[in-house]
Design goal:
- Helices cover 55% and strands 3% of the residues.
- The protein has 16 helices and three strands.
- It is mostly helical.
- It has two domains: 223 residues, Citrate Synthase, domain 1 (Orthogonal Bundle), CATH 1.10.580.10; 97 residues, Cytochrome p450-Terp, domain 2 (Orthogonal Bundle), CATH 1.10.230.10.
- Bound molecules: acetyl coenzyme *A.
- Acetyl coenzyme *A binds next to loops.
Length: 375
């Protein structure tokens, strides 16, 4: 029998059926539960999108109010978790803090972290807790007191309130809300797959989200927008763009924020974020990020034919919103936790252990050699 072909990186392998998210990689469309991302980004709030992902339909006013209230109540963290956070080095990467905190929360909330639990209580808890964890850690490392839970604020405004100081302008809140909506789900991306693999063993929701956070951390996935901002720092002046980008390509370096496993055209999230990078930049009188990014886009498309992905413009929006660079990927997790949890709940409803195989390419006929007889 011929050896089965290896699909490196599981590229184009269809692993399961899902009714959560559809990516049309050639048409450049992204759909959450039937709704186009452009429609949702323009009209829905992040809380509505979270409800849509968890329950499969948009909420009516009463359902949305109830969801908001539950999320607000769940912003408070248990004191035992705060004690753990107080012991972590203030130099820790916020993604490591998030991963550790979610794992620790499972020990403190054994009911929500039961294996195979199909209620959305844990999903709500984690969605509400992630900004609180980040805010607590960020304030502590900056020598500031713990942030209040701000019950009057929307989820997007709460994220801004705990991660930076100062008043929140309506445009800032809307920009953050759109960014959260755009990152909420994305089919079987690496971190969602990691969450589903963990859930498919009948492990618990908190373990699945811990796996997902660890997977999102990598620069080929969630960490790319930080690297995009580093590229802009290196470029400094727009007129240096061509030289810096071409030199990187000549060294066969990847330009972060470009290319995608599924999209063969522009990522629709990049289109929306480009617009927001311009809107927020204009409002704040700083279009320098936008201008440099447009030039980077032009050079990378000309030289490599690559299109931008969601990470190209998100970092510029966060920077304009005063979010520190090492919190960009954690903000991604703050949003994606809705998609991760929705996928885990879906996995529990149609559970099949995810366990691919590999082609063994090593020897099979070696004989054990006693240690003293080895060269
Ligand atoms: N810069 C330069 N060249 C690139 C880039 C890039 N960003 N992306 C792909 N290429 C090139 C590769 O070098 C390769 O060229 P080759 O055939 O001459 O060797 C070709 O395009 C195909 O690349 P693959 O790595 O096979 O494509 P894959 O589908 O595995 O990659 C990925 C997808 C990992 C996102 C890739 O495009 C990349 O590394 N991009 C930069 C990192 C990034 O922006 N990540 C965020 C993705 S979106 C998200 O996760 C939220």
């Amino acid at each position: 029998m011929p050896e089965p072909t290896v699909q490196r990186g599981l590229e184009d392998v269809v692993a399961l059926e899902s009714s959560l998210c559809f990516i049309d990689g050639r048409g450049g469309r992204l759909i959450y539960r039937g709704y186009d991302i452009r429609d949702l980004a323009a009209n829905a709030t992040f809380e509505e999108v979270a409800y849509l992902l968890w329950y499969g339909q948009l909420p009516n006013r009463g359902q949305l109010d109830e969801l908001r209230q539950r999320l607000v109540m769940l912003r408070t963290l248990p004191p035992e978790l705060l004690t753990i956070l107080d012991r972590l080095p203030t130099t820790s990467s916020p993604m490591d803090v998030l991963r550790t905190a979610v794992s620790a929360l499972a020990l403190l909330e054994p009911t929500e972290s039961q294996p195979g639990v199909t209620s959305i209580g844990g999903a709500l808890r984690l969605t509400a807790a992630l900004p609180s964890i980040l805010g607590y850690y960020h304030r502590r490392r900056s020598g500031q007191p713990a942030p209040p839970t701000h019950p009057e604020l929307s989820h997007a405004a709460y994220v801004l309130a705990v991660l930076r100081n100062g008043p929140i302008a309506p445009l800032d809140e809307k920009a953050m809300d759109v960014a959260l909506t755009l990152h909420a789900d994305h089919e079987l991306n690496a971190s969602t797959f990691a969450a589903r693999v963990t859930a498919s063993t009948l492990s618990d929701l908190y373990s699945a989200i811990t796996s997902a956070i660890g997977t999102l951390k990598g620069p080929l996935h969630g960490g790319a927008n930080e690297r995009v901002m580093e590229l802009l720092e290196e470029i400094q002046l727009p007129e240096r763009t061509e030289e810096v980008v071409k030199a990187k390509l000549a060294r066969h370096e990847r330009i972060m924020g470009f290319g995608h496993r599924v999209y063969k055209v522009e990522d629709p999230r990049a289109t929306i974020l480009r617009d927001w990078s311009h809107r927020v930049g204009e409002e704040k009188g700083n279009l320098s990020y936008y201008d440099r990014l447009r030039r980077v886009e032009e050079v990378v498309h000309r030289e490599k034919g690559l299109y931008p992905n969601v990470d190209l413009y998100s970092g510029s929006v966060y920077t304009l919103l005063d979010i520190p660079k090492d919190l960009f990927t954690p903000v991604f997790a703050v949003s994606r936790v809705t998609g991760w949890t929705a996928h885990v709940l879906e996995e529990y409803q149609d559970l099949r252990l995810i366990r691919p195989t590999s082609n063994y390419v090593g020897p099979t006929d070696l004989t054990y050699v006693p240690i003293d007889a080895r060269p």
